[in-house]
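Letters spell out the chain; backbone shape is given numerically. Both lines appear below:
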Amino acid sequence: MTGPSPAPQAAVETVGLRKTFGSLVAVDRLDLSIPRGQVFGLLGPNGSGKTTTIRMLCGLMQPTDGTARVVGLDVHTDAELIRTRIGYMSQRYGLYDDLTVGENLRFYATVYGLHGAERTQRLTEHLEELGFTERMGQMAGTLSGGWKQRLALACATAHRPEMLFLDEPTAGVDPAARRTFWQIIYRLAERGTTILVTTHYMDEAERCQRLAFLSRGHLIALGTPTEVTQQFGQANIEDVFIELQRRDEGVRA
């Protein structure tokens, strides 16, 4: 008689994760677990440690202390391999304006290790999924803000990453484009991609399956949007965010 199947390994698992810059503690002993296939929001005021946390998890910055595993790999010893298994998109537009949509996608697919027939097939499918088929020859620099962000997402997911990190991906994008962007995010999650997203839009935070709130490098709340609002005794996530900002401003004052 066989026993129960083992629980799937978490996409992210951190224990006591810490990062300091001299006397500044940017992230302080973060314990976090993110199941595979989940849309997870990492929230907090500016300076709370969100981007530093993401950079450590992406293998771009070594932790000062603690452990972290991403898609089963150790950030201390497997940083280069982690970068081949994840996608990353920041709020800063980083594509090549003087290349077409298709050229940008081919470039990033190649960087991520796709070549030949495999690359051609993947990009054909990807372009159709994200609505770029008729824009293949359009110069990236002529796209609207929403389409530029969609192209950045397409490039970050060209290699079918197991996990996707989105650092304020819809900053400055109009509401309609943000809704479309989130529809794409959930399609990716339904296919098994784990997604960690930071945002200052509280309507987007409400779309996450689970949330973690950071304040001055500390994890201060964790759970579903409903659970987090209950922990703070607030009516909604926006009120939680406002409360955190007041606390941070009080400390700085």
Notes: Residues 12-252 form a domain with the Rossmann fold fold (CATH 3.40.50.300). The chain has a mean pLDDT of 89.
